[in-house]
Amino acid sequence: MNINTLTIDAARSLVESREISAHALAEAHYAQIAARDGAIGSFLTLTKERALAKADQIDRLAERGDPLPPLAGVPVGVKDVLMTRGERTTAGSRFLDKFIAPYDATSVEKLEAAGAVVLGKMNCDEFAMGSSNENSAFYPVHNPRDITRVPGGSSGGSAAAVAAGFAVATLGSDTGGSIRQPAAFCGVVGLLPTYGRVSRYGLIAFASSLDHVGPLARSVKDSATLLEVIAGRDPHDSTSAAVPVGKYSEECGRDVKGLRIGIPKEYFGEGLNPEIREAIERRIDGLRKAGCEIVSVSLPHTEYAVPVYYIVATAEASANLARFDGVRYTTRSPQTKTLADMYRRSRDEGFGAEVKRRIMLGTYALSAGYYDAYYLKAQQVRTLLTRDFQDAFTSVDAIVTPVTPTVAFKLGEKTDDPVAMYLNDIYTVTANLVGVPGISLPCGNNSEGLPIGIQILGKHFDEATVIRLGHAVEQEQQ
Amino acid sequence: MKVTEQDVAYVADLANLELTPDESTRMVADLNSILGHIDKLNELDTSNVEPLAEVLSAFASTERKGSEKFAYAQRADEVKPGLSREVALGNAPDTDGSCFRVPKVIER
To answer: Residue B94 and residue A343: Cα distance in Å, rounded?
Structure first.
């Protein structure tokens, strides 16, 4: 058994055949974490007692020969923006350093109900705000492929742990690329479900019209299996969609012949690293050879997506983060005399620089006199962005693009320039604004051996086609 | 549009943030730089474009209109168990055992 490359199916069958117990499998992962996560920083909290109790429960089922659930004994991690009852849940923020979640997020509950063993909580940018994981209030995450580089963000710990062999798969969250971009930087698969496909109950909210929960994994099939488990309508989340959930793992291996693939010229222009362009063009060629029809499409408002995103996301964040007031969530500045003073000082001490910057930008965009110029304008351009996709999807089944303009950059390289950092999201934010599903998967390495990602976007609630194509792209590289 | 120190102080007040003088100086520069990029939106004429706040109602039920669009979000009005008082107060920095306790709201 090579623990670094273990897939869900392989892990489950080891446990089912009792070649290894779920308990021993979890311990083997903890041993890897103890030995090597000091240099990576992917975990914030280990939930060992809970994990081993779950593993033991699975082992008892296996001993009796009872049928095992789909993720039986599979060691996973969950991003620390998801609630885990009785466990520390920080969102990467000093503000929640001592916060103990009072309930489980629906996605976590579903994972465990399917037999997964939750090893711990993954490091992330504070409140999921960042593209490099350098905004974690605790410690940055290092990219396992090159520890001088960032793993991407904000689900950097989730991606790094899968790449480093610390967890077979993880959950992340994606508000503007936070699953797909770190997946690309670390050389793993990241799946963005359609807006509403997966419950956000128990997800610490960043920008509610853009937040998604989704999996990071070592293969397209693993990401599909996880989606099957976590997807579906949840009475606890009124924004979860009552749309039937498919058997996504069965899409892996289905023929892609005849599918029409759109290549949007706006995603291949200036600013895209030539090695990334070449790697993606090779994969597009592969799809053509597999019988796909390659069609040039236009998404004319693409260049406006980042400005729209940084208004909409920050406006919603400024409202969502108003709840951190020093009354309910562990942190209160000591010795404040008045209520107003307490709010201010608690927030000043609890929030990091990027979170304050986004609250300020969002509050500014919503403030009297600027609402029409910024917030309303951004919402109108959001309509234009969705029309771009509606138009494109009248002639194609899916759209193929890069995930990032460059490979993983060095720690510290962009921390002084927020605009440069934001522009890293240029190919990912639109999917969140429009609500379509997407996948980011490895498509080779650059000349320095760093991973390159390819993104496949689909129609609303058509994760099936995205997964089918993703699997074809993955297999072509085997 | 250029953000000034006064704007930053005003917005910080609205957001209940207390910024140090250094943070405030950096914030003026950062906001101007970010808004400079965002001003790109003014290249577009959006006078006849409807704003979009969220995508689910637009795509999950294209044939429905008005509040009908949000029928998926409705449920029966039934009382269900919630968090107990003890659990709800569990993360509070200060309580009297049954309520959150905060500094004095009204000064005498």
So the answer is: 14
> In this complex, do B11 and A360 lie within 8 Å of one another by their Cβ atoms?
yes
Contacts of A3 (CB under 8 A, 6+ apart): A28, A29, A32, A165
Q: How far is B27 from chain A (nearest CA, A)?
A: 7
Q: Which structural domain range is residue A245 located in?
A: 3-251
Chain-chain contact of B91 with A328 (C-beta, under 8 angstroms):
yes
Nearest to A259 by CA among A56, A369, A397: A397
Residue A259 lies in a domain: no
B58 contact A CB<8A: yes
Rounded-to-integer distance, Cα B36 and Cα B3, Å: 10
Verify whether residue A178 is a known catalytic residue. Answer: yes
Number of domains in chain A: 1
What is the arrangement of strands in the sheet containing A438-445, beginning at the earlier edge strand? A43-46, A117-122, A75-79, A169-174, A212-217, A189-192, A438-445, A451-458, A398-402, A260-264, A293-297
Whether A11 maps to a domain, the answer reads: yes
A51 part of a folded domain: yes
Are the C-beta atoms of A264 and A302 separated by less than 8 Å? yes
> Pick from A210, A207, A246, A143: which is nearest to A462 by CA?
A246
Q: Do A377 and B75 touch (CB under 8 A)?
A: no
Query: In whole angstroms, how far apart are CA A183 and each of A215, A236, A313, A339, B60?
Result: 10, 29, 21, 43, 28
Which H or E run includes A192?
A: strand A189-192
Q: Closest residue of A to B54, CA-based?
A: A209
CA pair distance A441, B68, nearest whole angstrom: 38
Q: Are A313 and A280 a contacting pair, CB within 8 Å?
A: no
Is A408 among the domain residues?
A: no
* Per-residue pLDDT in tens (0 to 9) along chain A, 478 residues: 899 999 999 999 999 999 999 999 999 999 999 999 999 999 999 999 999 999 999 999 999 999 999 999 999 999 999 999 999 999 999 999 999 999 999 999 999 999 999 999 999 999 999 999 999 999 999 999 999 999 999 999 999 999 999 999 999 999 999 999 999 999 999 999 999 999 999 999 999 999 999 999 999 999 999 999 999 999 999 999 889 999 999 999 999 999 999 999 999 998 999 999 999 999 999 999 999 999 999 999 999 999 999 999 999 999 999 999 999 999 999 988 899 999 999 999 999 999 999 999 999 999 989 999 999 999 999 999 999 999 999 999 999 999 999 999 999 999 888 888 888 899 999 999 999 999 999 999 999 999 999 999 999 999 999 999 999 999 999 8
- Cα separation, A367 vs A446, whole angstroms: 45
pTM of the model: 0.96
Asked whether the beta carbons of A81 and A128 are under 8 A apart, the reply is yes
| A461: three-class secondary structure by DSSP | coil
Q: Does B94 touch chain A (CB under 8 A)?
A: yes
Answer positive or negative: Cα dihedral of A36, A41, A42, A48. positive
Beta bridge partners of A478: none
Amino acid at A262: G
Which CATH number is A38's domain given? 3.90.1300.10
A415 touches chain B (CB under 8 A): no
- All residues of chain A having their beta carbon less than 8 Å from the beta carbon of residue B92 are 327-328, 330
The verdict on whether A136 is a catalytic residue reads no
